[in-house]
Amino acid sequence: MIGLLQNIGRSSIGFLERTGRATLFFLRVLAGVPALMLQFRLVLAQLYSVGVLSVLVIVVSGLTVGMVLGLQMYNTLAKFGAASSLGPVIALALVRELGPVVAALLFAGRAGSALTAEIGLMKATEQLSGMEMMAVDPVRRIVAPRLVAGILSMPLLAAMFSAVGVLGGYLVGVGMLGVDAGAYWAQMQAAVDWRGDVINGIIKSVFFGMIVTWIAVFEGYDAVPTTEGVSRATTRTVVYASLAVLLFDFMLTALMFGDTLI
Amino acid sequence: MSAVQDDIVVIRDLSFGFGKRVIFDRCNFAFKRGKVTAIMGPSGTGKTTLLRLIGRQVAPRAGSVVVDGEDVTRLPRAELYELRKRLGMLFQNGALFTGLSVFDNVAFPLREHTRLPEAMIRDLVLLKLQAVGLRGARDMMPAQLSGGMARRVALARAIALDPMIVMYDEPFAGLDPITMGVIMKLIRMFNDSLGLTSIIVSHDVQEVSAISDYVYLISGGKVIGEGTPAELEISKSPWVRQFLHAEPDGPVAFHYPAPTLADDLLQDAT
User: Fold this and answer.
1) Is the dihedral of CA B139, B144, B149, B154 positive or negative?
2) Rounded Cα–Cα distance for residues A120 and B225 (Å)
3) Percent of chain A with pLDDT over 70
4) Is some CB atom of chain B closer than 8 A to the CB atom of A75?
5) Which of A76, A148, B29, B259 has the smallest CB count inside 10 Å?
6) For chain B, domain boundaries
7) Which residues pair with residue B31 across a beta bridge?
8) Which of B148, B147, B41, B141 lies closest to B97 in space, CA to CA?
């Protein structure tokens, strides 16, 4: 019993200590962001490796998710004779939830793990140390551009995911199942609100981008500098980032759309 | 010039440790300007840590580390970074940036810290690469280099900003005899022709004795011998003799501390 309590205590203290370190690290990185405006090419290079290289996986997943949505929703809606509402249902599901969340989960797997592995290996091979000895702060030179690139690319990727998903739903719903194309687009246009749905979805994805990239760069920078340490850190990034995305998604959704909760 | 000014790095009463493990216990070192000074000792005695203390990548528990008249343990961050521009360091595995070519690796410190035009950076980089014999390898990536070549590129990068001190972390570890000879020649040549001060951390007795002006032997957190290589060679200290002549047993015991073998064998297997 005592042993159990001790374990709980120890892991809670460990968790708090790590969270504290991650927060201080985040502030250090943020302090390095203003200087990046002068060296924007560093961010551009990272936008490519973090953002552009994630486009393929995002587009393919977005398309399949949209197609599956079209198929499933059509079957249910058709029972109530509401098949013409397929457009708004798919668009709202994607723009409000699936776009930001699924894109963030994929982003954690594709870009987050790569960031952790890259920074962790730079640490393990003394590249970060070498940079410090050359009087270049690795937090500013290596970490800050990656964080900025992550925050900038996540909403763009989520938007692509939603847009391609809507097209996927159109392909299945209109192309294969015979929903009227005019109804698909017109009802979607009428039901989706710019401020309430699209902007909220973008806010979500900016937030997720920040959380996923923060976890990824912190895990990499904090990794035990061995091959084993880096592989563990990479795993942790994907697990923690995915859990954090789902947890914060509920909180943000409750804040944004939760009038019925109260 | 007084004796104190002649020492470019002076370390006094240095204490350092990780947790309960003591790495240095009130050690004193002095590194003479323009000389090659070596730190030797068994693995795990904190030789590399000493270089990190000089570059203030880690902070000592007590004592002072004065580099060119400035105590790095008290230096504010901005001034510390200024000082580091005048320190070069060669890491054991080279620590080249894997994403940059040989040329860009050597150009990195120049591009970060100077506002020289690209044409001049190109000339400087090619000159540094010429000095280590790798001008022809400028377009290769670090992954394509052999261990010895990587270390030579790292050496070119370490001297890119014309530092006053270059620190070498195990420069001879894991090299074939020819490459070893090349690195030895380069260290001595750079030291004498560029007016550097060199600090070498190593446990390769022959190589270090051949090129150093002064040697410190450390073990168990203490300096247990110092002098010119010739002085150490005739030292009576059993520890120095064991290390320099590679004897398997002596003051540094062959066995890791344990109960006697008989006790251990007679114990129950529980």
Assistant:
1) positive
2) 38
3) 99
4) no
5) B259
6) 3-86+163-266
7) B9
8) B141
Which residues of A are less than 8 Å from B113 in CB distance? 135
Query: What is the Cα–Cα distance from B24 to B22, expressed in whole angstroms?
Result: 6
* Cβ contacts of B84 on chain A, cutoff 8 Å: 132-135
pLDDT band at A188 (very low <50, low <70, confident <90, very high): very high
Pick the CATH number of B3-86+163-266 from 3.40.50.300, 1.10.10.10, 3.40.50.150, 3.60.9.10: 3.40.50.300
For the stretch A36-53, pLDDT in tens is: 888 888 999 999 999 999
| Residue A158 Cα, gap to closest chain B Cα (Å) | 29
A49 contact residues in B (CB cutoff 8 A): none
Q: Which helix (H) or strand (E) holds B126?
A: helix B118-131
A126·B108 Cβ contact <8 A: no
Answer whether B87 sits within 8 Å of A133, measured CB to CB. Answer: yes
Average pLDDT over residues B141-152: 91
Nearest to B26 by CA among B58, B1, B60, B54: B60
| CB–CB contact A137 B81 (8 Å) | yes
Q: Which of B48, B90, B108, B170 has the most A C-beta neighbours within 10 Å, making it the best mutation to test the interface with A? A: B108
Asked if residue B101 lies in contact with residue B139, where contact means CB atoms within 8 angstroms, the answer is: yes
Half-sphere exposure of A249 (CA within 13 A, CB side): 21
- Tell me if B81 and A127 make a contact (CB, 8 A cut-off): no
Q: Show me where the domains of chain A are located.
A: 54-253
Give the mean pLDDT of B91-103.
90
Is there a contact between B162 and B190 (Cβ–Cβ < 8 Å)?
no
Strands B70-71 and B87-90 come out as unpaired
Which residue type occupies B205? V
Length of chain B: 270
Distance CA B88, CA B202 (A): 17
C-alpha span between B58 and B93 (Å, rounded):
20
The residue assigned the tokens 């972390």 is B169
pTM comes to 0.86
Q: Does any CB of chain B come closer than 8 Å to the CB of residue A20?
A: no
Task: Report the candidate in B51, B164, B152, B162 with the shortest Cα–Cα distance to residue B94.
Answer: B152
Helix, strand, coil shares of chain B as percentages rounded to 5? Answer: 40, 25, 35
